[in-house]
Known about the structure:
The chain is an alpha+beta fold. The protein has two domains: 61 residues, no CATH class; 190 residues, Alpha-Beta Plaits (2-Layer Sandwich), CATH 3.30.70. The strands form two sheets. A three-stranded mixed beta sheet has the order 4-1-6. A three-stranded antiparallel beta sheet has the order 2-3-5. A hairpin with a 6-residue loop joins β2 and β3. α6 crosses α7. About 16% of the residues have low confidence. The site of one iron/sulfur cluster has 14 residues, from α4. The site of one iron/sulfur cluster (SF4) has 14 residues, from α4.
Amino acid sequence: MYGTGLAKGLMLTLRHFVDSYIDDIRYGFRKYSHSVDNFGIRQGTQTKGVITVQYPDEKVAVPERFRFVPFLIVEDEYHPTRAGKDWCTSCGICAKVCPPQCIWIVRGNDPATGRPVPEPEAFFIDIDICMNCGYCAEYCPFDAIKMDHDYELASYDRTTHHIHDKERLSKPNSYWRSIAPTRAYEEMLARGTWEHKDAAKEARRGKSSSRSAPRPAAKPAPAPATKEAQPTPEPAVNAAPAPAAAAEGTTPWSEDDAKREERRRKALERKARRAAKRGG
Ligand code: SF4
Ligand code: SF4
């Protein structure tokens, strides 16, 4: 029959209208008490009717998978061995996959040797260009870049304030766990540890995360691959054991010359193989 859809739509509107008042009575007008918890309940899935959110005094809670501009994860300041250290290794993958190309990374160098180190010296994201697609976070192999929930970024100066530098982008790991506990837990299960991949690897090898720490004359024996050395997939903070020999003022990226040379040789071999393949 003609008009049934229209009548149904109007009935739905009427029901929301009435429900709003019924819900107000049910909550005893507590929604106006400006209590954060109460507002959370009022915004829950059980709530009926429509209410006006008095933004900015009130804010609707965003879902965990909500994504705004990206941020970089750094270790918490209370981390036993890597306090404040970047999770980013400046591999550049995020900059490569970013569709509007709004990420700039400057790779760090070891001040002593001048060699590149897996740490960004500078990291910029132009948030006016960023389209919040989340590709950077999806592709990052180190779980170092994440999508933030902070959407209040308006400012009067878009030329400088909207280019977020490393300092502005860096947020502690605990922040990520607080805004996205489920995602953080899933990632931890995939990594097998709450720690950064490299830190966990070093801990498993029984090495200090600070490779330039004073070394004993003999080559340290590799850590036995026992179950105890494996990180436990429990939601405990800082599951990886703290390496004992973390020396102050040392750089975590230092490595002995032989090892570096070996790594370089292998990289050149791989490059040559790739070039040969392309040539063929
Ligand atoms: S992909 Fe991840 S580790 Fe690589 S540069 Fe981007 S944020 Fe850093
Ligand atoms: S969210 Fe998308 S557009 Fe924004 S920086 Fe990441 S990849 Fe680029």
